Amino acid sequence: MKSSIRGHYLAWLLLAPTIAIMVAFMGYPMLKTIFLSSQLTDLAGNPIKFVGFENFIHLLKADSFQTSLMVTLIFVCFTTILTIVIAYGLALLTKDKFLGIDIFRTLISSTMGVSVTVASILWLFIFNPQSGLFSISLKTLHLSPINWLSDPLWSLIAIIGTTTWMNLGFAYLILLGSLQSIPDDLYRVANLHGASWWLTLRKITLPATKPTVFFVSVVTLINAFQTFGQVDILTAGGPDFHTNLMVYAIYQDAFVNHNVGRASAQSIVLTFIIMIVTLIQFWWRQKRQGRSK
């Protein structure tokens, strides 16, 4: 009995540092954000008056927030789908061992080791309207030039493409590991029965990697909602707020417009959106699993 109680206290003692760090760096900021979302704040971010839900009401009525929300949802949707589809395709192409394959795997997964700042500056040069790689390619093909970072549509496409490229390394490595864990015997049996490549993909590969695809989709989606650095360096939220993703809008409200109350309200709305979308993903997965049983 005494040894059991001693083990109980020892477990809490070992967990204490982790709990203290979580309270300090997650619990306190969350509670402070909830508190500030109900306050009118001064330029330094100090609360000066309780306003209840007014920050939320003004936020939901603002055209800039509605534009930011719509752009964020479009961005997250396309970034998540493109990342998973491209990473899965590359993993399929490189899952088998042959001469020189390690070089391709290293090149594809190397995007994971590039910092957001370095990657954004690299793409800033590529999108340069005068000397960028894309502009030179269009000029060589005698096509009309594109203002990649100043046109409302193309700037959003540029941000989506840049973020997809950044996320590709992580998604590729996880999916490649999942594909390589499928037993070869399954493919041998499929070949003996004359199954086509498409049938093998549908009946063996996709079902076996479904849990991993789900994990990658959840992580990629949450990361997409938190995108900031590439927006700040490439477009600064422009033109006309067409790349003003919600995290960047929160930064603008808090540190440029000095409206911490509104920024806190926007942070809580973003948190609820991420929670709802993630719960929908888990609900959809459980529903699919229930049907397959």
Describe the structure.
With 293 residues, the chain is mainly α. It has one domain (55-290): MetI-like (MetI-like fold). The chain is built from twelve helices and two strands, in the order αββααααααααααα. A two-stranded antiparallel sheet has the order 1-2. Strand 1 and strand 2 (47-50) form a beta hairpin. The two termini are 44 Å apart.
Task: Give the overall shape, derived from the CA principal axes.
Answer: globular
Q: Which sequence of SSEs, written as H and E, runs from N to C?
A: HEEHHHHHHHHHHH
Total domain modules: 1
**Roughly what percent helix?**
over 70%
In angstroms, what is the radius of gyration?
A: 24 Å
Determine the CATH topology.
Answer: MetI-like fold
CATH superfamily: MetI-like
Strand order of the largest sheet: 1-2
Low-confidence stretches: none
Q: Helical region count?
A: 12
Q: How far apart, in Å, are the first and last alpha carbons?
A: 44 Å
Derived structural class: mainly alpha
CATH architecture: Orthogonal Bundle
InterPro entries: ABC_transporter_permease, MetI-like, MetI-like_sf
Organism: Weissella diestrammenae
GO cellular component, one term: plasma membrane
Membrane topology: Multi-pass membrane protein
What keywords describe this structure?
293 residues, Sugar ABC transporter permease, transmembrane helix, two-stranded antiparallel ribbon, MetI-like fold, globular, cell membrane, 12 helices, mainly alpha
